[in-house]
Amino acid sequence: MSRRRARPAPNDPYDPDAVDVRRVQPYEAHKTYLCPWCHRELPPGTGHVVVVPHGAADLRRHWHRGCWDKRVRAGATPR
After folding, report:
1. Quick one: pLDDT at residue 10?
2. DSSP secondary structure letter of residue 29
3. Least confident of 31-35, 44-48, 69-73
């Protein structure tokens, strides 16, 4: 009987303990972004959060506030 080896989980750049989260007020939002959780647009004028992994500013993403909250509660990676 052979055993399957468990693969290590890939590093999650959006681990809530390893990111900086900044709230963006509606008057500060001037561009359209795509939320990595729900894949819907964040149109200009929409309040949201910017999530920046520590040491990886190039992976900065703009999330709906509710989507980020769900991501934190779920402990899952973006779909």
Report:
1. 53
2. -
3. 69-73
- Say what the pLDDT of residue 6 is: 46
When pLDDT is averaged across residues 49-74 and rounded to a whole number, the result is: 93
CB proximity list for 5: less than 8 A, separation 6 or greater:
none
- Measured distance CA(45)–CA(79) in Å, rounded: 25
- Pairing status of strand 19-24 against strand 48-53: antiparallel
Q: Do residues 42 and 26 lie in contact, with contact meaning Cβ atoms separated by under 8 Å? A: no
Residue 63 burial by Cβ neighbours in a 10 Å radius (0-12, 13-18, 19+): buried
* Sole residue written with tokens 């590093």: 11
